[in-house]
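Hi team,

As requested, here is the filled-out complex form for the magnesium ion run. I kept the field names the same as last time so the parser does not choke. Let me know if anything looks off before we queue the next batch.

— J.
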Amino acid sequence: MSFITCNNLCYQYSGSNRTVINEINLQIEQGEFIAVIGHNGSGKSTLAKLFNGLFVPTAGSVEVGGISTADEENRIELLQQVGMVFQNPDNQIVASIVEEDVAFGPENLGVEPAEIRKRVDEALKTVGMYDYRLKAPHNLSGGQKQRVAIAGIIAMQPKCIILDEATAMLDPIGRKEVMDAVKTLNRDFGITIIYITHFMNEAVEADRVILLDQGVIAKDGTPKEVFADYDQLIAYGLDVPQSYQLMKELGINDCVLTEQECVEKLQELLGENGKTRD
Ligand SMILES: Nc1ncnc2c1ncn2[C@@H]1O[C@H](COP(=O)(O)OP(=O)(O)O)[C@@H](O)[C@H]1O
Ligand SMILES: [Mg+2]
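And here is what came back:
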């Protein structure tokens, strides 16, 4: 059984007659690392909120771990199972000390104090923020704040974390810190990751990429499959990974998505001359 299943999922905002999520059928397995891309207004944030029951479908259904998000009594369970990290790090801080901030979620779930202590320490270690546990969150960098927000979610022991453009306001160092933390959660703890981003360099790091366009899934596959058609990406209003763009400008039509692949391709093209000297 899939972890998240959407059947003919539709969503309209109240007071609007426009269907912003339109007949989506989708299955997400436990432990997947998925990037969701699409231009502004394509429905990414709406879909994310349908995944954790913050929104309920106006038609069709979403099931998480076999339970429907439409059932009121499942709401708390869902919010614990599917955590969300949002764009603005400052809006997610609820306490004046890092470790208290991380403890907030499990406290609300009624977890025992000794167990909370253990979870908070482990969560902060996992995201590399343990040394900052007694600091004030507002003094941290954006990347550090987002890692504290992620720790707060891990402390609730979720099965899935959704990041909705969580790196959009960060500098490149902060973006890398968050991506590294997320990769660890996926690889070492099997947590399902749904990573919404407009940075294509981040999207290519996922195992699977879902491209949304006007509330429907336009593409769903490996990064290579989804990014294969350069001109189509441009037509969908997306950026293109820089390595891919460079290749295109050099007149090479291969789908080269990462810096590493780009280096390899250039060395291959330059032959012996491309080898770096020892
Ligand atoms: N509160 C709202 N009320 C009415 N329409 C909304 C609301 N929030 C978003 N929308 C519309 O829903 C569509 C999808 O928005 P959203 O899910 O935020 O897209 P994305 O996250 O991909 O930018 C857009 O057309 C947007 O204008
Ligand atoms: Mg959005």
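Two things worth flagging: The two ends are 52 Å apart (CA to CA). The CA atoms of residues 50 and 129 lie 30 Å apart.

Thanks,
J.
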